[in-house]
Specification:
alpha+beta, tt1808, chain A, six-stranded mixed beta sheet, three-stranded antiparallel beta sheet, 4 helices, 11 strands, Uma2, Nuclease_put_TT1808, Uma2 family endonuclease, hydrolase
């Protein structure tokens, strides 16, 4: 079950809350703080493999797990945020700033059994509205990936369907390959 705080908050009040970075992370949507569900084994295996594959196949972008992205009145924490290295703000000593204040180029969500699909879809649509170029919602129970791109209807990929990736990521994957990572031999 997903926890939420009923009190309406400003985004500034939300970002000052001491527990929002605890696991599982909290998100800010329409004035309300909502805690994401705790990921389970299948979720974590898919997340780990996707992070590894995306990072191995791009020099211009990095895939980061659970990166808080605060922009356009929301603060969301995609399971995987793929962002350009050039968009990471650095401090005076050349290290990355802790707060990422933009939409990721590619937002990947892995649906958990306790998660509401419409809430995840709402976050992906918000990301697309404010600059995200690609969104995936993986459903491990259905072995499908719902694909979101700007100004187009969502599409569903299953089995041998080739999954779209950012053009800067030299990676070819099918839904079958991704969900095949769940098979333990």
């Amino acid at each position: 079950m997903t926890a939420s705080l009923a009190r309406v908050l400003t985004i500034e009040e939300f970002l000052e809350l001491p527990y929002i970075e605890e696991s599982p992370a909290w998100e800010y949507i329409d004035g309300v703080a909502i805690q994401k569900p705790m990921p389970k084994t299948r979720h974590l295996l898919l997340q780990m493999r996707l992070l590894t594959e995306i990072n191995r196949h791009s020099e211009t972008h990095t895939a980061l797990p659970e990166l808080r992205c605060t922009f356009a009145g929301r603060s969301v924490v995609p399971d995987i945020a793929v962002i350009p290295w050039s968009q990471i703000q650095v401090n005076e000593v050349g290290e990355p700033e802790d707060n990422f204040m933009a939409a990721p180029d590619w937002s990947i969500e892995i649906l958990s059994p306790a998660q509401k699909a419409n809430r995840v879809i709402d976050n992906l649509l918000h990301c697309l509205k404010y600059g995200c170029r690609l969104g995936w919602m993986l459903d491990p129970d259905d072995y499908s990936v719902l694909i979101f791109t700007p100004h187009q209807e969502p599409t569903v990929c299953r089995e041998g369907c080739k999954l779209p990736v950012l053009e800067e990521v030299d990676l070819e994957l099918t839904a079958q390959q991704v969900f095949g990572w769940l098979k333990i031999n």
